[in-house]
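Why do we care about 3D structure at all? Because function follows from shape, and shape follows, mostly, from sequence. That is the central idea of this module. The next example makes it concrete: a single protein chain, its amino acid sequence, and then its structure expressed as tokens.
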Amino acid sequence: MFVCFRLAPSALAQYTTARLSGVITDSSGAVVVGATITIRDVGTGYTQTTSSTPAGQYAFPSLPVGNYQITVSMAGYTSYVQKGIVLSLGQAATQNVQLQVGMISQQVVVNANPSLVTTDSPTVGQLIDQKEISELPLNGRDVQQLVFLAPGTTNVTANYCAANCEGGVFPSEQYAKVNGGGANGVNYLLDGVDANDTYINANVPFPNPDAIQEFNLITGNMSASFGNAIGGVVNVVTKSGTDHIHGDIFEFFQNSALDASNYFSGGVVNPLKQNQFGGSIGGPIIKNRLFYFGSYQGTRFRTAQNGQIAAVPNAAERAGDFSDLLAGPNPI
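And the structure:
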């Protein structure tokens, strides 16, 4: 079960935020100085305000991931409103704005999603959004498996005896090599907090997919702010409540009644019943201020192996008499 309470923040760690910047100009291409730029998260009502510099530039260096609306106003120009600005984890996007001469009470509203250009960050990686996370088939619904979708990533868990072989203490730990880096060279973060097993530097369990907003793997040109990694950085951000109540319920099941038999098992199918079920819900506690979000997943697993033939000690051997092993065609 995963539960979180979140305040609309005034400052956020860069590990869980995005950046938006740009230049304000007029119709002639000249920069506009002193324009007021306000950005608002449509889901939570969280806002930031800044002004354009003498070079006409503006910047919002720390914005939570989400769907935004930006408003630009300046005396002598019509107000500009841009909707549908979707910022992703770690994104450094650029959105330039051109103002038109007119009354400030007038508005130019753009509803189409803008094509944000990323020019401020050289990092290379793979971003998986919430829709993809919920729809991709994950064995056991383990979110950490998403790391293997990125190019240059190899699953070498089996080479290290899987979970607990090297002293790990958590289930579903895995080993990933990214661009030839070591198997213990991936740094895992959850909402900007270290999410690594301190014994073997593998991942700790993450919340279920319905609690995850974005999954980001950085594979190249990582910022110096990320330590503990030579291969890649996995940054996972959980969902937040919004000003409106939202949620879902789910169930995934496997049943041996739907399976074909193994050719070598004589037509017998191993009995298997697995159910994973749960749901999530989020909403406001104090509108535009404090939000809640919770998610629960339960797993029920029932299976049994087909019968096997095994040699067991006879009564004499259990009493310590192994003389029968000295007789026969192949005595010990």
